[in-house]
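Give me structure tokens for this 251-residue protein.
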Amino acid sequence: MWRLALGIVLSLLPQPWRAALRLNEAIRWEAATILSGFAESLLGLLLLVYWYSRSVTTWAANALDSALRGGPESAVPGQAIGFSALVLWVLHPLTWLIAYFVIEGLVRLLAAAFTSQVFGTFPLAVVDWCYGKASGRAPTGDALHVPGGRVQLKSLVSALRERIMVSRLPEVQDELLESRYAGEHRLEIRSSRPKPEWIPPKVVRIGDLYFRLERVSGGKSPRPFVFQLKRLAAGVPGRSVIVYEAPRTLN
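Here you go.
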């Protein structure tokens, strides 16, 4: 439990800072980030509600008090005073700052839940980036292959769309279609569920036969995930080979 609690706090740190702590094996970062993002978003919402009740009530009360004393607000209708206080709250920089952390918490939660990406809080990421630029720090480890923000956002949106689509589809048995093209034995597997570990050009073993995964594409419901494979003359068993239990025997 203490590891999870520690991970909730440390998941806010940028990746280089977490790597320096050498706790990757001790903490489940995805689960910790999900809880951290939820807590960040929830605390932000509570703070936003408190800030709203405190500021809008105070501003509206001060304006009404000034109107009762014959101040400039006396020419403004009472409803307009309340609306003006609400508009001022929406435009206030503190409102935007709190709302940012609400959104950031949701993004961190969704990224960890659907793409297994652990994002720290953006302000600390900016500090780390500035330090790296000032010190001339070269990217190391995973930082060498970290995609850009646009790519990560696209990946997150794609993962969310896939999860929503899968939740609406019935789980049916895979459909296997065999064919021959230019003397090559090809196999197409249509599935109602994604296969995250099936990444081209991995080798797939089906019974005693070996195939190389050529391409993953989209199909029609109820089997929108299409995996195209090419038969190999021979294969070597290993840890990287995917073992697939086919619903029927291949020719």
